[in-house]
Amino acid sequence: MNLVDQYLRMADLANQPKRKAKTCTTRSGQKRNVTAKAATRGITGFSAKHIYHLISQNQFPMPIKIGRASLWRLSDINHWVNSHNEQPDSDNQSNNLMGA
What we know:
By secondary structure, the chain is an alpha+beta fold. It has helices at 10-13, 48-56, 74-99, and strands spanning 7-8, 22-25, 31-34, 64-66, 69-73.
């Protein structure tokens, strides 16, 4: 069996802040408990707002829209991460060559 691709949501990509548990009352008077959530670090280490800014600047892969959901191919994200890991090394090598 071959996997075509895996998909990620924004929650997988972006950092998520810590959220405390709280109880809310709806307009109809029902009490709802919102559970606590620990802070998490996404694959990119950026906030969702910054990721959408990078998308608008064509510096991050575009999401695939399925209904209202925005999804990213894992292969696209891995390629983006790898391309950004290579740039500092090539910049340092060119600076070393120019200084030599």
